[in-house]
Amino acid sequence: xxxxxxxxxxxxxxxxxxxxxxxxxxxxxxxxxxxxxxxxxxxxxxxxxxxxxxxxxxxxxxxxxxxxxxxxxxxxxxxxxxxxxxxxxxxxxxxx
Length: 96
Ligand code: SF4
Description:
Layout: E1 7-11, H1 21-25, E2 30-32, E3 39-41, H2 49-58, E4 64-68, E5 71-74
Antiparallel strand pairs: 1-4, 2-3, 4-5
The site of iron/sulfur cluster has 15 residues, from helix 1.
């Protein structure tokens, strides 16, 4: 869906495990499809931004993606980690 404040909400049916967390967080906005069993966005126009995000945040598999004007808002892309994962345990080639 697209429109509200440039928001676009996508639900990946391959990631949905149908545990109804999103439908509990935002009832009537996200619902489980009776035929497929996976979540669908039922009422995008009637949803508040908070409800859209509440449902997305409740999803344990991050099946719900929210973009605004083409930029991903949720889930956030995590930055790569650099450096020594165990500070203080540096390689010491001068051992005696
Ligand atoms: S919370 Fe996520 S996994 Fe659960 S029904 Fe909703 S979209 Fe599917």
